[in-house]
Amino acid sequence: MKFDSGTDQLIATASNGVATIVLNNPSRRNALSCSMMSGIVDVLERIHAEGSTRVVVIRGAGGRAFAAGADLNVFAAEGVDADDRGSIETAYSDMLTAVRGATMPTIALIEGACLGGGLELALAADLRYAAKSSTLGIPAARIGLAFPGVEPLASLVGSARAAELLFTARRINGTEAFEFGLVNRAVEDESLHQLVAEIAGAIAENAPLAVKSTKLALRELRNCAADRDMHMLEESARACMNSDDFTEGRTAFFERRAPHFAGR
């Protein structure tokens, strides 16, 4: 199945419960253009509406980059006024919000350069897997840009390491990113796609309502205790308990067979 992204710089397909969104701008190391940003929002909406996808993988085309940041040529172009820049920034923010808010788990497959806005996109995903040779970093200070959205980075690596990465603008490889806690796992380049396929497949085989409920709980964990929507989490857990999938899971367990979940 193929989803219309509205641009040839973004390719979205789905098979066996796994959707793959490919950032398809390899000549610019998949730098994020406005059409790619808005396309990601549109594609995630279409994936959600279609209903059969259980996990989304985001990766870059060409093997040389996940995404080497936002396309700075857009900002540098003559005739781009403050309103245009505001629209670009809104598109960027909407993209991150859409990835963070996706109802199904999201995975960033990182090979090659994953820099600046590209790394921020990867941080918006639930899971990150990287090639050991990949290059990750946020060079904002080196090009004179502020980077106010520090919370996702600092929550993963701690404020001290986040400060080091941001102040120095240095780049780290996949192995060091794993040591920092920035990615879930770093593997040899030739093993990365197979690893992500296995992880995505394992998620897709599990009960969708249970996975969604767990994702909600993890999202609420980011809020302080007083602001967590415990009623929503209780309702979500109750829906799982009363679902056909829970009946199927129990039956499959006692019958010693693999369960077949329908997401209801």
TrEMBL record:
Domain of life of the organism encoding this protein = Bacteria
Any idea which UniProt keywords this protein has? Fatty acid metabolism, Lipid metabolism, Lyase
The protein depicted here goes by the name Enoyl-CoA hydratase-related protein
**Reactions it catalyzes:** a 4-saturated-(3S)-3-hydroxyacyl-CoA = a (3E)-enoyl-CoA + H2O; a (3S)-3-hydroxyacyl-CoA = a (2E)-enoyl-CoA + H2O
Fetch the InterPro entries from UniProt.
ClpP/crotonase-like_dom_sf, Enoyl-CoA_hyd/isom_CS, Enoyl-CoA_hydra/iso, Enoyl-CoA_hydra_C
Organism name = Rhodococcus globerulus
- Transmembrane stretches in the record are none
Entry's family note = Belongs to the enoyl-CoA hydratase/isomerase family.
Stated role: Could possibly oxidize fatty acids using specific components.
